[in-house]
Amino acid sequence: MVRKAARMAGGQTAKVMESVRARIDGRSLPAGARLPSVRAEAKASGVSVSTVVEAYERLVAEGLILSRPGSGFYVAASAAPLILKAVAPRRDRAIDPFWISRQSLEAAPGTLMPGCGWLPADWMFESGLRRALRKIARGDAVDLAEYGSPLGSERLRALLARRLLGLAIPAASDRIMLTESGTQAIDLVCRLLIEPGDAVLVDDPCYFNFHALLRAHRARIVGVPYGPDGPDAAAMESVIARERPRLYITNSAIHNPTGATLSPATAHKVLTLADKARMTIVEDDIFGDFEQEPATRLAALDGLDRVICIGSFSKSVSASVRCGYVAARADWLDSLIDMKIATSFGGGRMAAALLLATLSDGAYRRHMEDVRRKLGRAMDRTVARLEALGLTVDLRPRAGMFVWCRLPHGVDAGRIAAQCLGDGIVLAPGNAFSVTGGASRFMRFNVAQCGDDRIFASLERALPAYSGSGAVA
What we know:
45% of the residues lie in helices and 13% in strands. It is of the alpha/beta class.
């Protein structure tokens, strides 16, 4: 009964707030106008005085109205009209490392996103997150209000150390530093280890934000062809001899975008080349929880000597809980701590506490088992439907959410993506992932986001339009 009453009161407060907003937007309450007194508003709206007080206080917090003690409440400013063109993502921008991110992150409600890199919200560990939120809300106030230590939560680092040890990666908790995200972890490593103009190797294709981040650091980005077993070792040897790169950034558990898995033989070749060239490897392990069986980790074979392991849980727990980690050798970690303090000061205790509570929940393991089963079924359905449209899947991933497809001869993925965007569907054309621009006939699909028939209907309409003699090869 108490919860029901609270929900009703909250709904009444929201109703009053919407009424006030509508009057301000409609100019019946212009800038500087005095709002009705709380008693007058309560009578007009049929709610209690306390409900109106709460509504007005929230509108003050939003900056929409002002409180003048002894005088009342006044409109701070009229709301500017919403111009949809100004807030919508540009559909005509070139296919670059930001194209998919902008289209996905700025998408209007109802947009279908088979090209995005995350699970649907209802596939995430929602029940566990809600339990974790309640737990930290009842816990130590320090986790809600204070900075964290530079290394981050000791308990979460201990949990991560045990998880990494299960993958044969020898990372004690004092060799792990929490970050705000996996992207921040790579950013800190780049700040520490490279200078503008340094060469950095990436897979071709690779996760498009690696390109964007490295460009921000003014690095020379050099691609190495990536196949079913990992990078082409012979091509890597040639590139290393020519470019003398400082870093190589890769995924190895489940590769993004190809879904490939690094083989032990290729891993040994890569480490031999890195050791000979004194090249550091950054291994992004963000998709590890989607594996059916653990794949080869460069960090395990290397013992965290030349390999830096990074990760986060934005794909498996929540993208809203910004917490990642970096595991590295002691001397590098000490410098990374200084770099973290310089760029973001202390870490966020609340996110770390929430992640710890979530990962410690016994239901998380069962949840991920269910997610892996759902991904397997979605992979079967999606591959079958794509192949029926004439797309080719050269590699069937062993796990994960991504499938890398080759379009029919003469079909340009960027043009298909642009046409389907007109149908409210965000795709992931291959050249967004390729530093050389050699993936114009490829496209990445997220099988977890491919459950709507409209995606395949749009593809079917778009494909004939750009196949044949008039297409761009």
